[in-house]
Design goal:
Length: 162
């Protein structure tokens, strides 16, 4: 695929949509098979009258749709304010299943406490490097927030244990 220039790929795929000669279709399929199937299923199946291409359209487009609807989505753990109009969003890109969380003994409160402790540590490091009054105050504030989040996580863990 790297051997075929981008301009040639586009021309082949455009001709495959409208002209549809057998050689052009074969070349377009060889260059980008999934793109060719998606394009032709829309042109000839959904917009056209071919029921075979309609089935191909359902097969090609249903996989990504099912994954988007029923798959795991990123889980937002917390949002920390860094300064005016600036935030840090802590997101778990690949969340564990409930079974895995129970086995590991991890809760969302624990994750949030860990994230705020990391932010507090970063601010403390910055305050140690640049001991300005504003930076030191922000480091103290994030440390208090991290301690509060840790207390909440510990309280939930104690409640769960009893």
């Amino acid at each position: 695929m790297a051997l075929v220039p981008v301009v040639l790929r586009r021309r082949l795929l455009a001709r495959a949509n409208f002209v549809g000669g057998p050689l052009v279709n074969l070349l377009a399929f060889a260059v980008q098979p999934v793109g060719y199937l998606k394009r032709m299923s829309i042109v000839r199946g959904v917009n056209g009258s071919s029921s075979a291409w309609k089935i191909v359209a359902v097969v090609v487009y249903s996989g990504s749709t099912f994954k988007r609807i029923f798959g795991k989505t990123p889980e937002k753990i917390s949002t920390e304010k860094v300064r005016a109009n600036s935030f840090v969003n802590v997101i778990n890109a690949k969340p564990m299943t409930k079974k895995q969380q129970r086995a590991a003994g991890i809760t969302k409160a624990d994750l949030k406490a860990q994230a705020s402790a990391d932010v507090a540590a970063a601010w403390a490091h910055k305050a140690a490097q640049k001991p300005k009054r504003k930076v030191v105050r922000r480091a103290e504030k994030t440390a208090r927030m991290a301690a509060a989040d840790r207390r909440v996580a510990d309280k939930k863990a104690a409640k769960r244990a009893s």
